[in-house]
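Researcher: I'd like a structural prediction for the single chain below. Treat it as a standalone chain; there are no partners to consider.
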Amino acid sequence: MRERRTLRETGIAEINPALPDDERQILALFISGSMEGLTIFAGFEMPWNAKMPMLETLARRSFVHLARTLKPGEIKMNLAPGGQRPDPPRADDASA
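Model: Treating it as a single chain, here is the predicted structure.
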């Protein structure tokens, strides 16, 4: 829990200070759970342990990109009942 709080309060807030605290909390939970989930496959004495450095690189890049590119309200909008992201305008759409 302390690691998640630190991640939310320092790491994510520094990367994307525009995200509200409740969305930073959800993102920190997702990142923490994802990292912990990897240990089942690539943790100490597990079959994919030798690949852990590559998995860490992928995770780090993915999590930083996610934290950097999320916009305020985006997580809540997608988690709300019936909430869906609008499709981005197509390049050939004259009304966009």
